[in-house]
Design goal:
CATH topology: Pnp Oxidase, Chain A
Shape: globular
Number of helices: 3
Number of strands: 12
Radius of gyration: 16 Å
Largest sheet: 7 strands, antiparallel
CATH architecture: Roll
Number of domains: 1
CATH class: Mainly Beta
Strand content: 35-45%
């Protein structure tokens, strides 16, 4: 068998860009009570019993150190009309929380008002793999409302049309 060449990074990104995903904002709080958050599309349910979710956080992400030290995290599943919030939390050069209406969840984590769903979680495991950390969290509380999701496909935002 001939050894395979590594997949070129651009080709890998293009292929993964063909996977439509919802958009979430993951938040946590540091020991001083400061809020940290970022847009995360690498998010998934993991288990129903116990209720677990996972998110993948790049080692170079601005939130990485806060997540490494955190006990709690919040997930806000964004609604279609929250595209600007998604962009803001993806931009490391902005005050992500300025003027954003919040509610507080477990451990004081910020949850974004207007989101389709909120998950209040306790981090139970972290796995270092490649250039990311896989964060596994137990869902302590969840809420959901009706609405259309914010979707991402091929480096663009899209709409869900039933």
């Amino acid at each position: 068998m001939t050894p395979r060449q590594p997949v070129e990074a651009g080709t890998f990104r293009e292929a993964l860009g063909r996977f439509a995903s919802g958009i979430t904002v993951l938040t946590t709080r540091d020991a001083a009570g400061g809020d940290h958050g970022m847009t995360v599309s690498a998010f998934s349910s993991l288990s129903l019993d116990p209720p677990l979710v996972l998110a993948c956080i790049g080692h170079d992400a601005t939130i990485a150190a806060a997540v490494r030290a955190a006990e709690y995290t919040g997930i806000s599943v964004l609604a279609e009309e929250q595209q600007e919030i998604s962009r803001r939390f993806a931009d490391s050069d902005t005050d992500r929380f300025a003027g954003i209406p919040l509610v507080r969840g477990a451990g004081g984590v910020a949850l974004l008002e207007g989101a389709l769903a909120h998950l209040e979680c306790r981090i139970v495991a972290r796995h270092e793999n490649g250039d990311h950390t896989i964060v596994v969290a137990e869902v302590l509380a969840a809420s959901a409302r009706m609405g259309r999701p914010l979707l991402h496909f091929g480096r663009q935002y899209g709409r869900f049309v039933p």
